[in-house]
Design a protein that fits this description.
Length: 231
């Protein structure tokens, strides 16, 4: 299977998101400048191909959840190895099928330069190729904070649609953790108890939080700080 170029250097959590220039359905975009000027978190996500079934459901779901992402000061930015013109036509289908109003930009990455930069190319599924045998982009998700740091990387196979609620949940967890110095347990959702960060001594935690439940010296729960007022 041809990949039409060298494999990108793998990115890591904590890496600075690579900068790039791109054409999008909303006009030209300079990525780092866009982050700096907006002051927003970014969800950069790729899909394999326009006018395909799973992708149509995915982008429709993201479009309908745009107000929830807005509440988390987060901008959505899609990408695939199609032209901007292809995206523009397909958006009409997305809106019709999902009863949506897709407004976020979608990058036209026909040359796959950004896809290679972010290692969004499918190296596993040899059937996930275009008519020329060139690998499609996979379902990658990068959550990037306003300081341009990559905070989450998710990758899904072409056959499996993403869970949009999980992307929102991760964003909520990251932002809550950054603000209040807490971590979140398995299956956490906003409003549920969080975990006191292990670097904070229990005595200090009792000063910082309204309630601290010590299960083990290293495992201390406290109510979501956004739902209670400190006594």
């Amino acid at each position: 299977m041809s990949t039409d170029g060298p494999r990108a250097t793998p990115l890591r959590l904590g890496s600075i998101a690579p900068d790039f220039e791109a054409e999008t359905t909303k006009g030209p975009l300079s990525f780092h400048k866009y982050i700096e000027e907006s002051g927003k978190w970014i969800v950069l996500f790729s899909h394999p191909e326009d006018y395909t079934p799973v992708c149509t459901t995915e982008l429709g779901a993201f479009a309908k959840l745009a107000p929830e992402f807005d509440k988390l000061n987060t901008a959505l930015l899609g990408l695939s190895a199609n032209t901007v013109e292809s995206h523009a036509g397909w958006i009409k289908d997305i809106n019709e099928v999902n009863n949506a109003d897709l407004q976020f930009p979608i990058i036209g990455d026909k040359t796959r330069e950004i896809a290679y930069l972010y290692d969004m190319i499918d190296y596993q599924d040899k059937t996930n190729v275009d008519s020329k045998g060139i690998a499609f982009t996979i379902r990658s998700v990068f959550i990037i904070d306003p300081s341009k740091v990559i905070r989450t990387i998710l990758s899904y196979p072409a056959s499996t649609g993403r869970n949009s609620a999980e992307v929102l949940r991760i964003l909520d967890s990251l932002q809550t953790g950054d603000k209040y110095k807490v971590t979140t347990p398995i299956d956490w959702v906003g409003g549920k108890d969080v975990i006191v960060h292990p670097t904070i001594p229990t005595e200090k935690a009792q000063e910082l939080f309204a309630e601290v439940k010590v299960v083990k010296p290293y495992l201390r729960f406290t109510p979501d700080p956004r739902t209670v007022e400190k006594k």
